[in-house]
Amino acid sequence: QALLVESGGGLVQPGGSLRLSCAASGFTFSSYRMRWFRQIPGKERELVATIPSTGGATIYADSVKGRFTIYRDNAKNTVYLQMNRLKPEDTAVYYCNAHSWTRPGYWGQGTQVTVSS
């Protein structure tokens, strides 16, 4: 059974940092591109960051470029999102997603990030 479990969310002050983790199991993690999305209630889910299956070139939404870093450890079946210089508008539920053009995709349950003083 494929499973993605996010952790690391919480309450942080503006300008602070958080690191989200997404632990994968039940599928071949190293064969999947991994993505982080976020969603605010009443709005569409927004793609935040993408990393290819073997690492390498990453892609970021303009709103987080220069502040967020996505990276992965295929030996640990885990993808991370390091978030620095957080802003109140980064407040959302963050989801990790395993994507493949040829295999079923998977979603985690989400972790809440709240940026507030």
Write the layout of secondary structure elements.
Elements: E1 3-7, E2 10-12, E3 18-25, E4 33-39, E5 46-51, E6 59-60, E7 68-73, E8 78-83, E9 92-99, E10 106-107, E11 111-115
Parallel strand pairs: 2-11
Antiparallel strand pairs: 1-3, 3-8, 4-5, 4-9, 5-6, 7-8, 9-10, 9-11
Characterise the protein shown here.
This protein is mostly beta strands. Helices cover 0% and strands 50% of the residues. The chain has no helices and 11 strands. The chain has strands at 3-7, 10-12, 18-25, 33-39, 46-51, 59-60, 68-73, 78-83, 92-99, 106-107, 111-115. Strands 2, 4, 5, 6, 9, 10 and 11 form a 7-stranded mixed β-sheet that branches. The radius of gyration is 13 Å and the shape is globular.
Distance between the amino and carboxyl termini: 40 Å
In DSSP terms, counting alpha (H) and pi (I) runs of 4 or more, how many helices? 0
> Which stretches are poorly predicted, pLDDT < 50 over at least 5 residues?
none
Work out the number of β strands.
11
Beta-strand content: over 45%
Main beta-sheet strand count, sense and barrel state: 7 strands, mixed
Please state the CA-atom Rg, rounded to the nearest Å.
Answer: 13 Å
State mean pLDDT (0 to 100 scale): 96
Shape: globular
Q: What is the helix/strand order?
A: EEEEEEEEEEE
Helix content: under 10%
**What structural class should be given to the helix and strand makeup?**
mainly beta
